[in-house]
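Let's sit down with a protein and look at its sequence and fold side by side. Please make up or recall a protein chain and show it to me in full. Label the sequence line and the structure token line clearly, so we can match residues to local backbone shapes. Go ahead whenever you are ready, and we will take it from there.
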Amino acid sequence: MSRLVFRSVAALAALFFSCSLLAAPTPAILPLSQIKPGMTGVGYTIFSGDKIQPFDVKVIGVLPNLVGPKQNVVLVKLSSPEITQSGVVAGMSGSPVYIDGKLAGAISYKFGTFTREAIAGMTPIQEELAVSGAPASGSAAASAADSGRYALPDAWAQQMGAGAGAYLEPIASPLIFSGFLPSVINRYSSQLEKYGMLATEGGSVPAKPSDAALEPGDMAGLVLISGDLSVSAGCTVTARIGNQVYMCGHPLFGFGKVHIPMARAHVVATLASAMSSTKIMNTGGLIGSITEDRITGVMGRLGPAPTMIPLSLSIESGGEVKQFHFEVMQNSKLTPLLVSMATLNGVRSNLTYNEGTTFRLEGTIDIAGHGSVHLSNMFAPTDQPMPDAFPVAAQVEGVFNEIFHNPYEQPHITGIRLSVSSLPNARWASIDNAWSSKKEVHPGETLTVKVALRPYRGSPYLREVPITIPAQASPGVLHILVSDAATLDRIEQYFPFGPTARLADLNQLIRLLNEERTNDRLYVALLQMSPTMLVEDKRLPNVPLSEINVLGERNPGRTTVLWQSELGERSVPLHEVITGHQYLTVTVK
């Protein structure tokens, strides 16, 4: 669907739900104090299509403070022909429950151990609705670990026939992947499972004007990636009050205050499984923004969706170029992971992809109000048990983590452009030996460093690198480091608490990232045993000892001292990954 058509449909949807907000008044509420064992009610959810279906609910009892202080769970038994077949289903969380015609809560938890009956936990509705008044920060937000297992008291476990060690856990939310290879999903599944996500395949469907007409029991989704690839999570709507939509009854990611695009979701079918039944879903049009992700539920607002990060990915292999275009949500924890997944999937889904291939990555990350971060590196295949393209994705994720987790300010990424090209065969060489053409030199004199390199499955070869001794070189021993990029970067960026600890702002971090060397070049550096001060993002070589304390006092906490200084550097491109290092010495007369 073109952007113009999508916007037109979205505009119609906005008009549709803006005219229908008055049709979503506050429902009659049954408070927790009035819920008693033995009471019966009816719940609503979707098992197939967009048809909301009822199921029977019977109250077993109340588990006070199970999730946290004043955060209770109502233990209930569910029954219907569909539930008899599938049990408690992933994607069912948020299903509203009515008792005596009043909204009592949302189905949100299931037993983590085997039981013969469909026993579930219900979040009381007053606690779910409270997410709208949660503070922007503080204990109201749950972490991924906090939203895990909640031990059932032994007396209750025996009553349920579950045995000792029984626990309740949030009903998993389907994480719907479209356009992703199963091998890519499996590689990241353990990271996704930490957030209670159940990876499943699904798709996306065109937006419709009626997408925003949500009712209790409908499905809604959180959009993480959209476009040529898509990832979204889904759960059931508990209530809609005006333009506010309450769902899930438990946290999805537990991030607290969020800005995640909200979309309509449609159930294709329910897949029954003895291990974990789940809803297979498609994601529809964007209808608003998820604003709260709290321990007792998720809340969204109908209206404009938050801005996502446009990402273009170009894959070149075998003379063919394949282009991908999609958008990624902005979130410090998830965006680096999502971009890594998309990059790996884009490379591996190419029809000409082969293991044993060398990859070159080029890219740009644009940051509002700042300069761009540039990526450039080469990756040769290894014998490690992972796809050869994985280091490419890991490099992208690592840079994103540096940007998003900086201690200076919240960055706003405005665009990402990545280009990955594949080169046949394994292209890497190790530094086997090195020697200098001279043992004694004078300032201003040029010497030649000869380097023996041993390529992968090839004949050793020699490279010569001329380098000039600076005029300011002091008499005495001068060290020559012949190395790969990583070795030289580690020497220069060393700092006890990481390089970001000495920097002043995001601009300095960007400059530091852009100065990192590329691993397809051979480096020769001249090192002298004299102090170098690292002051924020600047290197000050050969600092007199008398000035070290003065500079440190002027820049408290942002300086460190290296007891060697770089006097000069040369590099030569070799168009293959270089590894290893050698140290040489010469005497300056």
About this structure: The chain has a mean pLDDT of 83.
